[in-house]
């Protein structure tokens, strides 16, 4: 059953990398601009597209089409990620349901906002384009009114993205994700399009090839081709039994639904990524060159990890060996291991990455690596800032974890903290005396502030005991008494 109760907006930033560069350097707005990665133009501004420049075109071909093409290197993704995060944050100010789809696309579920706005003003006006027939028969569920309100909200958000960040975007407004995504690219750039449910079938058929249906990957499309299904229409007309012979039941049903534009999946709120990684295409044949590439990747990666704020627990490397049968492709192999390395200890990271590398590549033979990647996965959260003794101890050890110098070893941070304090206390002229009855080793491990607190507890206790030497009063719950109890 197709449910029309939601209003979903899909946002896609126009010529994303090119716009980020144009925001940084407005002079680039008036020239045909291409973003270069290695030997290809990964994207270009719309001025360059007028010359026929396409995504992933070779530089030589692009230059032939447009000799005035200005090229900017786009291999460092830092600014693009930053901008992507800013757009994401801005969208979150409209709805808690924002799902990131790559760096320049987001779904936003604005159903609640639409409801609120319709309560304030019943009337909603169409903003932007409509796919199909504006006067298509009205659905009884009220979806048309909701989607029109959605088009007003989409315009409002796009205006805000432009005012705050200088970026133009396209938007698709529909009652589910797949339709919002498809309809959004009907009118580009800097435009928005709404789809009413009655026209969903027409939109899906307009794609023609099943390969153009989002979420039907190449693997599924290849299997469909083997059973002679290549068009959306053929997928509509085939029966589930036929699909069930090559896919499991759920997948078969899902493919059929998608081809009709039926998609009840929710907008999943995007949390922090499960892994943070980078990889580069390369041609590496020597150990030294591999190390240099790891260094390069690590430098960029550490900036991202520090910004993310979590502590990586696992390092993973990716290697693609040259395969003469697939000179442009081939399988990637990965190896990973647990780590406990301060983020400043780059040498230790490289050493660990190289150890993993030699698990994939035979150290005694020659090699040719065409892709090298480095990533961190499995993160631990940084402790909260709450001011408890426990978080104080944790916080200090984590602070060290982030800030310690390259001489740090690969020890547990808490142990390192212990050593640090011991040095601190033993060498300090202001070292605080360990009160009688408290374990000296434990005491020495504690931060000066805590030692100070325990000493004060001890002296206060002592005064109290001296005053009421015969008193049977129970001991108050102080740190000093706690440590005394631990010892006995
Ligand atoms: P897209 O959304 O495909 O393209 P775009 O935003 O540049 O252009 P538009 O939406 O106006 O059609 O990709 C987003 C960014 O991803 C793009 O700016 C550059 C980058 N990219 C790559 O790095 N490699 C690729 O192969 C492609 C297609 C894009
Ligand atoms: Mg885009």
Task: Give the key terms.
alpha+beta; DNA polymerase, domain 1; Dna Ligase, domain 1; 4 domains; 6-stranded mixed sheet; 17% strand; globular; binds thymidine-5'-triphosphate
Structure description:
- It is globular and about 95 Å long.
- The protein folds into four domains: 8-200, Reverse transcriptase/Diguanylate cyclase domain (Alpha-Beta Plaits, 2-Layer Sandwich); 208-259, 5' to 3' exonuclease, C-terminal subdomain (DNA polymerase, domain 1, Orthogonal Bundle), CATH 1.10.150.20; 275-403, DNA polymerase, Y-family, little finger domain (Dna Ligase, domain 1), CATH 3.30.1490; 417-487, no CATH class.
- Helix 4 (78-92) packs across helix 6 (143-165), helix 13 packs across helix 14 and helix 15 (389-403) packs across helix 16 (413-427).
- The protein has helices at residues 16-24, 46-49, 59-65, 78-92, 111-120, 143-165, 177-184, 200-206, 218-226, 232-237, 240-244, 249-259, 287-308, 346-360, 389-403, 413-427, 440-445, 448-467, 479-487; strands spanning 8-13, 33-37, 40-44, 57-58, 70-73, 98-100, 105-109, 129-130, 169-174, 192-194, 275-284, 311-321, 332-338, 369-380.
- The chain has 488 residues and is of the alpha+beta class.
- Bound molecules: thymidine-5'-triphosphate and magnesium ion.
- Residues 12-17, 42-43, 55-56, 104, 188-189 line the site of thymidine-5'-triphosphate.
- InterPro entries: DNA/RNA_pol_sf, DNA_pol_Y-fam_lit_finger_sf, DNA_pol_Y-fam_little_finger, Rev_trsase/Diguanyl_cyclase, UmuC.
